[in-house]
Amino acid sequence: MHIPDGYLSPVTSAIMFALALPFWYVGVRKLRETANAKNVPLVALMAAFSFVIMMFNVPLPGGTTGHAVGGALAAILLGPEIASIAISVALVIQAFLFGDGGILAIGANCFNMAVVLPYTSYAIYRAIAPGSGASDRRRLVGAAVGGWVGLNVAAFFAAVEFGIQPALFHAADGTPLYAPYPLSVAIPAMLIPHMLVASVAEGLITALVLAYLLRTNRALLGLAPEPAVARAAASRLRALWIGLAVLIVATPLGLLAPGTAWGEWGAEELAARGLGFVPQGLEKLQGLWGAPLPDYDLPALGNASLGYILSAVVGVLLVAVLTWLLTSALATRKGRTRAANQA
């Protein structure tokens, strides 16, 4: 679902960036209002978790691949506003450092995966499990259904963005300039595989992690206000960081899935799929940015699995540190503003 450069026209990319902006603004304001020393690590953790979970590619019907995002879980733990910031940080690092998603397409990718997914998932979750009095069973069902629906809606938005390109942007002879497949192809090609596999993974991951937290760290979910449990929340958060480290070591499993995600082919791959031509705009924009570590690979190591793990380590460190610094800076600014108002 990481749209590369060249598949969307610059006009579409600009519009998608503009659509994402107000959600980033709301997210930063929410983060500034709620930031404190206690939730800084959680925001960083969820951004890092999203980065890592997206490295686990799974095979999809039709010979392509997909992945979960972790957006539903982030929305449940942080709220959709702050989740949009955490996931956006992960997506930006993926684009600039690893070439996973285009630079011009950052707005579109963030809108789909960091806005549509968490907001939709959270709405579904709250509809099924409203309020603090909801049973644990309803919470788990809401988490699973919310994750499944949220990722499917995000995939639908991406499919529409792909599918409108041939109708809106084409050469004088009708040849598409960017993504070449119309809505009649893009929507089923994106939505059906995600409905069957990737969205199931999103829902399962969300429900499993939530089940663990309901059993071990209800304070993190705001369900256990007792002081003793609240004090234990920080130490139990360390268990989640350890779990993240285990996931990093396991990331080479994401290399086992054959094929490329639908809509993420390079020009040569696209031509080889029987299209018969390479869209001019796509060919022009696909090399816009040369990522330092393309495809999470370190060829000098001579070991793809080790390169994948080290890429995960580098990415997680960058994502976590950037998110931590952003959240800490907002918390510090809030403290100074409050002190100034009291003076």
Helices and strands, with pairings:
Blueprint: H1 10-34, H2 40-53, E1 58-60, E2 64-66, H3 71-78, H4 80-98, H5 106-128, H6 136-163, H7 165-168, H8 183-216, H9 227-250, H10 267-275, H11 280-285, H12 304-342
Antiparallel strand pairs: 1-2
Task: Sum up the structure in keywords.
343 residues; mainly alpha; Arp2/3 complex 21 kDa subunit ARPC3
Q: Encode the helix/strand succession as letters.
A: HHEEHHHHHHHHHH
According to CATH, what is the class? Mainly Alpha
Strand content: under 5%
Tally of strands? 2
Determine the N-to-C terminus distance. 50 Å
Count the DSSP helices: 12
Give the biggest beta sheet: 2 strands, antiparallel
Number of domains: 1
Task: Give an account of the 3D structure.
The chain has 343 residues and is mainly alpha-helical. It contains 12 helices and 2 strands; from the N terminus they run ααββαααααααααα. It has helices at residues 10-34, 40-53, 71-78, 80-98, 106-128, 136-163, 165-168, 183-216, 227-250, 267-275, 280-285, 304-342, and strands at 58-60, 64-66. A two-stranded antiparallel ribbon has the order 1-2. Strand 1 (58-60) and strand 2 form a beta hairpin. It is globular. The termini are far apart.
Question: What's the quick description here?
Answer:
The chain contains twelve helices and two strands. It has one domain: Arp2/3 complex 21 kDa subunit ARPC3, CATH 1.10.1760.
